[in-house]
Specification:
By secondary structure, this protein is mainly β. The protein folds into 8 domains: 2-114, no CATH class; 117-212, Immunoglobulin-like (Sandwich), CATH 2.60.40; 217-298, no CATH class; 305-382, no CATH class; 398-484, no CATH class; 490-595; 602-694, no CATH class; 700-746, no CATH class. The chain is built from 4 helices and 67 strands. A 5-stranded mixed beta sheet has the order 4-1-9-6-7, with no helix packed on it. The protein has a 5-stranded mixed beta sheet with strand order 12-10-17-14-15, with no helix packed on it. Strands 21-18-27-23-24 form a 5-stranded mixed beta sheet, with no helix packed on it. It is elongated, with a radius of gyration of 45 Å. The N and C termini lie far apart (124 Å).
Amino acid sequence: MKKIYLLLTLMLLCIGQSFASKTVKITLTNENKLAMMEFRDGGADGALITPDVSGWYPSLTFENGLWIHCTNPDGKLFVSTNKGGVIEKEIVDQSCFYTMDELEDGETITIQLSVPRYLKVMVEDPSIMKFTIDSSDADPLEATAGENRFALGEYDSFYISVADPNAYKLTRVYNETQEKECEVSKFSYSRISYSGYKDNDVFSYTLVPASEFDMPKVKIRVDEPNDASIKFGYDAVKDLVANEWNEVELPNYETEYSVSHTNWREEVYKVTLNGTPVKMGYSSYNGTLKDGDELDIQVYPEAIDYTVTVNVVPEDCAPFIHTVLVNDEEVDHQTGDFTVRNGKKIKLNFNTDYYDLKGITIDEKEVDLEGEYVGESYTYKVTGDATITVTVEKKPINTLILDIDNPDAVNVRQNYTPVEIKEGENKITYTSSNNRLQIKKLLGATYDYFAVVKDGVTTEIEDPEDEWELRMDDSYTKVIVRVTPLKVDKQFVVYFDTDEETMTKFNTGYSFGSFSFYSPNAGGSYSDKMKPGYTIFDFADVYLPYYWSFSVYSSDEKDNFTSGACYVDGELQDKYSSSSWELNDLKDGSVVKCYITKEPRTFTADIAGDEDVEFTVIKDRIVKVEDLSSPLADLEDTEIEIVPAEGKSLSIFISSPQNDLTRAGEEEGELLNANEEGKYVVVLDGDKKISVKKDSLATVGDVMGQNSGVDVFTTTGVRMLHDATKAQIDALPAGIYVVGGKKMVKK
């Protein structure tokens, strides 16, 4: 018995599943075409389904499959779904059918329906007319005398043209259905765009024999035709004679024109239409021409100087005009009249933060501020003597105190304009137009205390944004900021193996190549601070990473450079890209070495000193060498400094490890001279042996009196001076000499 109940239950479940409904959404390329569609449940004879259009997409609910049919006999139907790719449904007799298994609940079906539209044109003589689609030069459609019905694609444009423009002129095309004129071009054709007609609109046209047609004409005069760009629509007007009235045919009864300078950096001085000046918009003059109009174009002004006066009313609002420019050069407008050449532009720049502009008059004629779009400046072209009067009104001014202990740790801006601040209390004045105060914490700085005083109550801001903003009003009286700046207490050094000339070419010669060393966090590029050889940078960890890159553009120079190599503390770095390196692991005292002209070799320096000699060894400008028990190994061009202890003097000799004696007679090697700072510098351009000794050699004063004469020899016995005075010996180059029988060092 239980088995029978189980079978009945399964049968009921199957029946329930067979009658389960599904709902799909549809998209239609044009939902206006929904009325041309028919949907049925189960097939062509199934129940009619009315789409639910209440949602974003129309939806259909069915139980036995979905039948889709287009009722328009001229329509072309395309139906598809998308399951990992477009799956097109086969269309038969403008219909298709989806079984229940083919659709999932909630699926979207795309329906595309292309339906032609029709135009009607009344044609008298088809032999002198031409009707085309999408172009006036396309193959003409077949036409007969009387009413013609043309089938057009959904987005086709329709052209009505005369077959021979020299025989007939097309003067009018009219949409009789919509009672609307259509634009006619060059009296030869009219383009009716797909959006300009509806299905079954009726059009008519008017022709005039060319022999009976009077073309509309205008007169144009221009001083420099070669420098003026004159256009009717998109067609240029050419072959004009300078300084004469040229009669020019118009392509239509009313024609749009434009006039501009052929050089886009310059402007045409003046254009008048029938004696009335035309206002320039942007960099061109534009308008409409009709039969009989006269267009006078003056490209260049006469060489005349005019006097211009600028006044501000009331006088105590004079700061409203903060600068006056004449062709981008500032002039002093506050000392009285100034002279401006005819055709030059005057630009008045306004301080709109503290003043309201009420009006501008030029020779007592009011300027339309809205029509001129006057904002923070006003530009006027001088064509004669002019008095410009600007009327303004002060805005109410409020004050807020900004109290800050470390002004160098923040950037302060007012309406995004930088504000200079000092330590302590700063008075910030503002109006309703510039009441945005922005305080930006600089990189690595930390806020210790941040508070605002509003309506007499001090409120601490627990966690201010890195860039904090306040809309100031009279309820706020004070902002208090205590901030600790970033402590920049680390250094690294960069060695760059090139010369000043090449560095200059990298920085300024675009065709030569490019070089950059920069940190986005530390404010950008350091390329201009780099020098050939060593450059020391102060930094903090938040500045990391640094980047350096270079590339050579000049084919003549490529052979002088390698692909580049970068070392950090002696370790070769992998490239970040084809020609750049990212430096993430710099520490205090790090050494960065950038080689582009050579592949560096490694050399050694064996530094040995007498037991009681006192000195310090500094490598790469900032690295103190603590262990001299074994030879120092480093890359080619490494700089080694030997610094005597304070108050001490050294004698330093350089030789090759393979040959302790570099010159006959010099037992210790070549004597190294100190630089102006009293330091001894060795460049590692090969293996070196460096002997550091106390300076025990005699001085000039030890070997001779002030006036006694002595002979001076080199260590190899060559006499340099005979009966020399102290002054002559002091003038000798640095080196070791035998003076009066004693060996002496000359520094």
